[in-house]
Design a protein that fits this description.
576 residues; 32 helices; Serine Threonine Protein Phosphatase 5, Tetratricopeptide repeat; mainly alpha; elongated; disordered N terminus
Length: 576
């Protein structure tokens, strides 16, 4: 709100100064209407050059106007009116210091001459000499207590100096004189806002709307107050109305978009930002925010377009380039994603996020040597337990299980209390068909973290697969499911342990529920087929085995097993 007050001060200065553009009806040689008697006489030559100055001003020929007014002043050196005209033209030509000096000197002779006082007040304010400006406007009010503009201006000046009580008192005095003064009501609201007295600010902003219902600035500020009070629904209404009244109220649209984002109303936020971006096509920040919203919505193509616009303006914006790489990664445009990540690393070789995603993409594209080198670099820069775990999984994919084991054991020496490392080592031992050590390390992971859902599920499922400790298996999987109730894999484990317990109806129910979360997992389809076979429905079992076969690539070694089941079952069905 301090910005609002400052804008007002600048606006008031400019418009008040601009008021000197027109032809003055009073004579340049007339005596000012103040108590002091000024020695002056009508001078034809002075008036002639004054008229020439006015005509030059109308044509915006400031140098000519200044020369003519100065010539007029040579013929009538005692005219304060001409001095003000000269200073006002100096101001238009940017000669602020000279204009200020002219008025200061004039007021030494004519201390109550209002045009000089007003111009000097504007000059002081324009130079941010607010204490001097305050003193000038106090003098104006003493000379002319009915000059309401000076009350308003002085009130705002007090507020910028944080003299809120003085500001409020003066603005209220103005409202007593002019109850329908729109600007007095509005700026009294602004002062209360800056004073953080939001209820009073709201009261006066609403009073301005009673006079001018389409006052978008008041609506915008009421939106700010509603936000502060966390009444986001009301804030949205104020911002929407402000932006409808004034489509160029960019602040209202900006705040509206931010609330929509806060309320997770992404589509509406995008609509507002698209409108803003059309109006402000060169505003790079808008393109960035739009890109991130498109990304959040999963509209990666549009996100890429917006983020590339940002990078065309700011190629060194590492964060934007990182988000661009994520979008490309989501679209599986891995070569382009790698290109963007490498550009980040050229600028910032130790950027952990970029290195981590680079390693992931290398792994996904089976560039395992590059993935391992990248994980080694991550470990070198800032060792973290998860980097060792990721590295070990690369060796698992390469079927170098002994190396994977060695990597995890080295990590456990560094981080002996990290449950994930024990879990991953348990998985490696499962791949090595070493059930006892798998069980040992999974139990150690659970001991360190009783809420390690994956370890609970893995151990429970392993027991179920072997058909041992089924009661414990059920308890472990149920614990895991409480921690991750929407995990299709854990629901599948629950169904499978029910199957092993001979509770086939419950097993079928849970396994079908698992499909809602992992509809392309071949193991779940195989399990359902096994249940149907136990329930004496071989045709349904065959149907689910065939569905499992469609997704065989997602589970190593399952293809041959499923094909064998299908052949066996087809033979049994034909032989009936």
């Amino acid at each position: 709100m301090k910005r609002i007050l400052t804008v007002f001060l600048i606006f008031f200065t400019v418009t008040a100064c601009a008021g000197t553009n027109g032809i003055k009806k009073s004579s340049p040689v007339s005596t000012p209407k103040v108590k002091t008697t000024y020695p002056s006489q009508v001078n034809r030559d002075a008036y002639y050059y004054y008229i020439l100055g006015v005509q030059a001003e109308l044509k915006r020929k400031w140098d000519d106007a200044l020369a003519y007014y100065q010539k007029a002043a040579e013929f009538d050196p005692l005219s304060p009116y001409l001095k003000v005209q000269i200073a006002s033209v100096m101001l238009k030509r940017g000669k602020v210091i000279e204009a200020t000096r002219e008025m200061e000197n004039l007021l030494k002779t004519y201390p109550k001459y209002l045009p000089a006082l007003k111009l000097l007040g504007q000059l002081y304010n324009g130079q941010r000499q607010r204490k001097k400006a305050i003193e000038i406007y106090k003098r104006i009010i003493q000379v002319d207590p009915e000059d309401t503009d000076s009350y308003l201006f002085l009130g705002v000046l007090y507020a910028t100096e944080k003299k809120y009580d003085k500001s409020i008192k003066l603005l209220k005095k103005l409202i007593q004189k002019k109850p329908d003064s729109l600007m007095a009501l509005y700026y009294l609201g602004a002062v209360y806002f800056d004073y953080r007295k939001f209820d009073q600010a709201e009261e006066y902003y609403k009073k301005t709307l009673n006079i001018k219902p389409d006052f978008d600035a008041a609506l915008f500020n009421l939106g700010l107050i509603s936000e502060i009070k966390q009444d986001y629904k009301q804030a949205i209404q104020y911002y929407k109305k402000a932006s409808e009244i004034n489509p160029h109220n960019f602040d209202a649209k900006d705040r509206l978009s931010r609330i929509y984002i806060r309320e997770n109303r992404i589509k509406e936020a995008i609509d507002v930002l698209e409108d803003l971006s059309d109006q402000l096509p060169k505003n790079i920040e808008l393109h960035k925010r739009l890109g991130l919203l498109y990304m959040d919505e999963g509209n990666y193509d549009k996100a890429i377009n917006e983020l590339r616009i940002v990078l065309s303006a700011n190629p060194d914006d590492i964060n934007t380039r990182y988000f661009l790489s994520l979008c490309l990664e989501e679209l599986k445009q891995y070569d382009l994603a790698i290109e963007e990540l490498n550009k980040i690393l050229e600028k910032d070789p130790k950027n952990l996020k970029a290195l981590l995603h680079l390693a992931y993409i290398y792994s996904e594209t089976q560039k395992y040597d590059d993935a391992l080198k990248t994980y080694d670099k991550l470990i070198e820069i800032k060792p973290q337990p998860q980097y060792f775990a990721y590295k070990s999984m690369i060796y698992v994919r390469l079927k170098k299980l002994n190396t994977a084991e060695a990597v995890l054991k080295e990590a456990i020496k560094r981080y002996p209390d990290n449950d994930d490392l024990y879990f991953n080592l348990g998985v490696v031992y499962e791949k090595m068909k070493d059930f006892e050590r798998m069980e040992e390390y999974l139990k150690k992971a659970i001991e360190l973290n009783p809420e390690h859902a994956d370890a609970l599920n893995y151990l429970g499922y392993s027991y179920a697969e072997k058909g041992i400790k089924l009661g414990e298996a059920l308890e472990l999987i149920q614990r895991a499911l409480k921690l991750k109730p929407n995990s299709g894999y854990i629901i599948d484990s629950l169904g499978w342990v029910y199957f092993k317990l001979g509770r086939y109806d419950e097993a079928l129910k849970e396994l079908k529920r698992a499909l809602k979360y992992v509809e392309n997992d071949p193991v779940v389809y195989e399990h359902i087929g096994d249940v149907y076979l136990k329930l004496g429905e071989p045709e349904k079992a065959l149907d689910y085995y065939k569905k499992a076969l469609k997704f065989h690539e997602k589970e190593e070694g399952i293809k041959e097993k499923i094909e064998k089941k299908i052949r066996s079952l087809e033979m049994k069905i034909k032989s009936r």
